[in-house]
Amino acid sequence: MSTALRPSDLADYRDEALGCTRCPLAGTRTQVVFGSGDPQADLMFVGEAPGFHEDANGVPFVGQAGKLLERLLNGIGLSRPDVYIANVVMCRPPGNRDPHPDEIASCESHLFRQIELIRPELVATLGNFATKLLSGRPTGITRVHGVEQEVTLGGNRVTLYPLFHPAAALYTPSMQRILEQDFARIPQLLGARRSEEVTPPVSQQEPAVGARQAVQLGLF
To answer: pTM score, two decimals?
Structure first.
């Protein structure tokens, strides 16, 4: 988590990003849907793209998938204000189609800048698009969900944790159970990250005091 981030840093960048016209989605959107949540969150979620409700409200994950996401968060003792939520692209693709490669390429720097400013410890990717973009690998979510990996994002080392997208689990009880199981590991993963930060590597720890050195130091 960043300790150097000024509250205005993310707000300033948001103001800049709201006027983005890099790709054709700028001509079909209602508004840019920038990330939302705690600007110093340890946990960040990255989805795919805004849908109808997000495009109308200007906030990510406010539809049915967002409600499921909030229930999953509540299940592990967290709430929406505790985390930060963003998407691969900030503008709604027409008809909720998949974002095109050129649209993702045009928007990815906005996502990476948010990650750079927030400096989360754990980034949970929701679905194929976020997972493939942030992992840099073509492997689909079905094969990698629930398997954490260490990556560098926004210049910082973070744990990447792929999850099924809540929208895909809304009407599939079996997938929702898997999502709940994967979510249940989030507190453990956050705890592991914090332990690593508190405990220095062996090479940086104080060397053991040998017997001869102990005598010289008058320890016994």
So the answer is: 0.86
